[in-house]
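Hello forum,

I keep getting stuck at the same step: I have a sequence, I want structure tokens, and every attempt I make locally crashes halfway through. Rather than fight my setup again tonight, could one of you with a working pipeline run this one for me? It's a single chain of 130 residues.
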Amino acid sequence: MVEWFTVLVVFQLAGEILSAATKLPVPGPVCGMVLLFLALVIYRRVPDGLAKTAEGLLSNLSLLFVPAGAGVMLHFGVLQHDLLPIGASLVVSTLLTIAVTAALMAWLSRKASGTAPGPKPAAPEPEARS
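Reply #2:
Ran it on my machine without issues. Output:
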């Protein structure tokens, strides 16, 4: 488990380096997550140890939000000033995320069942007679 956790941290570090070197407006951990995704696509499967480590982290994810939540409550007076724009952006972004996720899921479901629009496979050419 420690070695797979190290793999995750190394991808996060690579993302931080990529984000800082290219001055992308994307946080380093997000870049690291994209790099990890690309590596897993190339590898064509998720190693069992990595899956178990990720499941362990995800099952305890709520604990990782406690410090962030405490920080938000510590500065609630500052946030109270912009509560309406922050609340509106949260509601709009949540609705957009749900809509995009639903549309993507519907498209992927149609594609998996073979009814999605897209390029049709070429018809086989007739065999040449000799």
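The radius of gyration is 22 Å. If your local run keeps crashing, start a new thread with the error log.
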